[in-house]
Amino acid sequence: MTHRTKKRIGKIGVTIAILVLGFLFISPLLWMIIASLKPETLIFKDMGLAAFIPKEMTFSNYSKILFAENINFFHYMWNSLFSVGMIVLFGTIVNSLCAYALVRLKFPGSDFILVVIIALYVVPFESVLIPLYIVVNKFGWINEFPALVVPFVASAFNIFLFRQFFMGIPRELEEAAQIDGASPLQVFWKIIVPNSKPVFATAAILTFVTHWSDFMWPLIVATDDSIRTVQVGIQYLFTDNNIQYGQIMAALTLTTIPVILIFLFFQRYYVQGITSSGVKG
Amino acid sequence: METSLVKGKSQIKGQSQMTYQRQRKWLGAIFSLPALALLFTFLVLPVILAFIYSFMNYNMLNPDGKTFTGLENYKRLFQDEVFFTALKNTLYFTVLVVPLQCSVALLLAILVNKKVKVASLGRVFFFSPVVTSMVVVAILWTFLYNVDNGIINNTLNFLGINSQPFLLSPNQAMNSIIFMSIWQAAGFQMMIFLAGLKEVPDTLYEAAEIDGANAFQKFLHVTLPSIQHVTGFVLIITTIQAFRLFIQPYVMTNGGPSDSTKTLVFMLYENGFQFRDVGYSSAIAVVFFLVVILVSLILKKVLKQ
Amino acid sequence: MKKALTLGMAFVLLIGILSACSNDKSASGDGDGPVKLTLWHPEGDTTEAYKEIIKEFNKENKGKIEAEITFIPRGNKYAYEDKISAAATSNTLPDLLSLDGPNVANYADAGIIQPIDGLIKDQDDFVPSIITQGTYDKKLYTVGATESTVALFYNVKMLEDAGIKPPTTLEEAWTWDEFYQAAKKLTDKEKGVYGVNWTLDYGEWIIYFTGPTVWSNGGRFISEDGEKTEGYVNGPKTIEALEYLQKFTKEGLVNLQPTPTEFEDGKAAMMLMGSWEWTKLQDYKDTQWGITYYPRSPEGEQVSPSGDWNWGMSTSTKHKEETATLLNYLMTKDHVVKLAEVSNKPAARLSSFEEMKEWNEAPLNVLKNQVLKTAHPRPSTTSYPVLSTKYGQAVQNIFLGGDVKKELDKVAKETDTDIARKK
């Protein structure tokens, strides 16, 4: 076998593996999408494999959510996009700067701070929910946008993530820039950021995903319809009785789409990361 | 770049470097200030409050009536059978989920890092469970795990295997949650691995190929060592995330059957919010925190070896 | 380290200043102009109706009172209650809040709602069970517009085919054994048809729907004074009741993991379900259904569960008089009719019931009769959340084959610990 055919066989193998595993991963979501397209009365008639055969397809579950009298789905969607977008934007800046400082601009106590930050990641949100509410209330932010954004800008997870990747960037690159007279901020902006695009993309995506599905906190701090997020907004579907599963599945599908789009957007930075990477030299 | 690098090394010396270093320290504090200030206000401060509450009898609905009770909550905790069950369940989940999920994630990352046409499609497929809301996904899976009508039992029957009770059996409920959790979260770790793999220079692989290494040897001798810092990170964060298991048992099994899926965070939530016993809940949080720190330290030691 | 300390202190200072500002902000709300009142209610079927009622109220009281209602999702399980708890920790509760019946004792005891004795117009017109539910420590704390109950729904055709005649009057209601025999006869394992369907939801549902079986047998969940569950929730009568229910699951007369529409799809012949289910059934045209009474213990009395959401006045309200005006406005006969109709629930005012004609005929008359004649409140105790949750988990295990006594012993132990803590 020549080297080329070997490579081709390898590629075919990888393609098949991706497709098979991909199908396994996506099939529960396919179930969800098909259920969302069925009339409520048929969803549980065939729950098993037969569920994958679409019958009496209808968009009524979608139209009921999008044009519901009591909720403004698009407005909630915007609120979510805006608040989560803010977290991602400020979070990426603040956390990457902090991580950079902890890796390269060490100051007295910085190693200790790093340990504390990693330890903070351990804290489960459920255990600080009430104290956090008390703090946020002191700021007078109940029912205000900052309550949805400010507490989550700094993230122990992201600082830890950035640190781990900045450590891998060769010092020589920075030193060279320093000698050319660049200030630490310039070094960060011109050397570190371009060389760590995949990490920035990862941090942005993971932050977005984490906060996109937040439910408990937005519910507690943002009662007002004007700043209600989409995850809270769609919860009206879980009433005490007559839960409309078709609409829940439709709502879930609708709330998933923007995240997939954002994901596709950030994904190109992975590709860019390879070509423009100075690490490769 | 090469030339400036060589030139630079000889230029940096003595006095100028000292000032530069001092300036760096100063700037380091400034750079990290925004993040640290925010963390302090919105995380450290609440943690301190929770720590104080753990020594109190504090009814959530009656904050003015809270009283100091010393170590009462901790004493109660160590006499509580449910606590030890929850601790055991949490450890069981973590020990199984961490290696499995990380291996799956690494495999997926390697697959979608290959230069094939379906790679980006694969990334979307593997990542999409992560982006869906856990609460609804958990409801979805209770349908998939249904004994009589669920898709999974349907498939098993099709393959000639008997139906399994899954969530209804104390022996299978936790394993069912483990399987579902890996499905849901592997894409998360995959993304981190992927960012790591992107940093491995192609030249290393090319060199290995010239030496006649096969795919597995390349994985073992090039990939793994190159992403070591990422692997350590992924292991630690997956461990911590595993410890925080809550929504799946909360929605799918309510901690049952027979407490077989009750976890520490479940217990913390149940006592804090449902029973409004902030003191006891905070004590659970403190012990939880210590346990996870301990496990992380052990993990770090093990990883170093 | 010194720097870090300075930083930390600067931050504490900042929080202090900001909190001072926010306090000023809330204090400045008490100027001239109309009195502003806020209400919280779970989002649901009544949302639109409440919006209209509040709009009318604001029109009628223009310049004097201005009410604003906020609808909060209940989410999966207890999201609404969690929100109330969070608000209670920092005095951000509304003037009037809606709460589920079993929370009355808990909220009243914690002092977040206040007695409304003497403030309610035509109090005698409310169905007795609503007043019982709203009463804690001999004082009235809440009233609500609607009631609820659990009854036995049945598939008309399946019962006919099996030659089973469901009771049509309260006096003829099935005894435990008659119900069991019917379920056994109707179960057809080959066709995958179950005799009875009951949901195994994890929230409040379990104590709500199994309660009548316990009470009918003379059992109790808690002592009369609400101080002890040992010997009650695990007493012989309660154990007997649950052993009876366990028989259904052991013999496969009930599906332990039913689909949400098992009865509607003709896969179960009967269904023990909440009064609200009849509206959903109307979407399933192929299934002809009827309703009969909750089965009773052979020697015991006939009982049915009761309780629904009601309104309580928060202790932190600064306008008690106006809040009472608003509450009375919500609870007028006409508004109760309106709210009951949109939520398809039995009305909580006797005079309103009379106006809702369809409740006088079969099948809905069964629900009405239960509300008026056999309603039994859930236990009134500050430790209700622990009792209900632990009991629910125990019953879940019992249905899966667990030992009844052992499971209920655990409930007694945990609940009594909580009662002791609250003292």
Automatic annotation (TrEMBL), chain A:
Q: Which InterPro entries match?
A: MetI-like (IPR000515), MetI-like_sf (IPR035906)
Task: Identify one Gene Ontology CC term for this UniProt entry.
Answer: plasma membrane
Q: Which PROSITE patterns match?
A: ABC_TM1
Q: What is this protein called?
A: ABC transporter permease
The record's listing under Pfam families reads: BPD_transp_1 (PF00528)
Similarity annotation: Belongs to the binding-protein-dependent transport system permease family.
> Keywords assigned by UniProt?
Cell membrane, Membrane, Transmembrane, Transmembrane helix, Transport
Signal peptide position in this chain? Answer: none
Membrane-spanning residues: 12-34, 81-103, 112-136, 148-166, 245-266
Q: How does it sit in the membrane?
A: Multi-pass membrane protein
ABC transmembrane type-1 domain: from which residue to which, for each copy? 77-266
Q: Which SUPFAM superfamilies match?
A: MetI-like
In its UniProt record, which GO terms are filed under biological process?
A: transmembrane transport
Q: Where, subcellularly, is it found? A: Cell membrane
UniProtKB/TrEMBL annotation, chain C:
GO biological process assignments = transmembrane transport
Source species, please? Peribacillus loiseleuriae
Protein known as? ABC transporter substrate-binding protein
Keyword Transport tagged = yes
The family line of this record is: Belongs to the bacterial solute-binding protein 1 family.
- Nucleotide-binding found in the keyword field: no
Its domain of life? Bacteria
Signal peptide boundaries: 1-20
> Keywords on this record?
Cell membrane, Lipoprotein, Membrane, Palmitate, Signal, Transport
- Mention any Pfam family matching this sequence: SBP_bac_8
Q: Which residues cross the membrane?
A: none
